[in-house]
Design goal:
This protein has about 100 residues and is of the alpha+beta class. The protein has a domain of about 60 residues: Nucleoid-associated protein YbaB-like domain (Ybab, Chain: A, 2-Layer Sandwich). Helices cover about 55% and strands about 15% of the residues. The protein has a three-stranded antiparallel beta sheet. Keywords: Cytoplasm, DNA-binding.
């Protein structure tokens, strides 16, 4: 026989790991990530599912003659938040999967 006890033990470990992964995924989804542009002129808040929840723009940067500058600040804040989500996923879930999967 091929060690039924070992197989049973391994299956328990796999189930436990799956539960831990699901708990981590739920925690990530419930977390808010706020990206910042320099001097906090733009703040972009996402949940862990990468859904934009809030976008705050400081009125001082609103300039009809510099729409590109405001667009750049929005991009910086959005990308900052998305990078935070990615880093948190790697930190929390990286132990359960091959590198780069999350």
């Amino acid at each position: 026989m091929f060690g039924g006890q070992n197989m049973q033990s391994m299956m328990k470990q796999v189930k436990k790991m799956q539960e831990q992964m699901q708990n981590e995924q739920e925690a990530i989804a419930a977390t808010d990530y706020t990206g910042h542009a320099p001097s906090d002129v733009v703040l972009a808040t996402f949940n862990g599912n990468r859904e934009l929840k809030d976008l705050q723009i400081n009125p001082e940067i609103v300039d009809a003659d510099d729409v590109d500058g405001m667009s750049d600040m929005i991009l910086v804040a959005v990308n900052d938040a998305l990078q935070q989500i990615e880093a948190d996923q790697q930190k929390r879930l990286g132990q359960y999967a091959p590198k780069g999967m999350f």
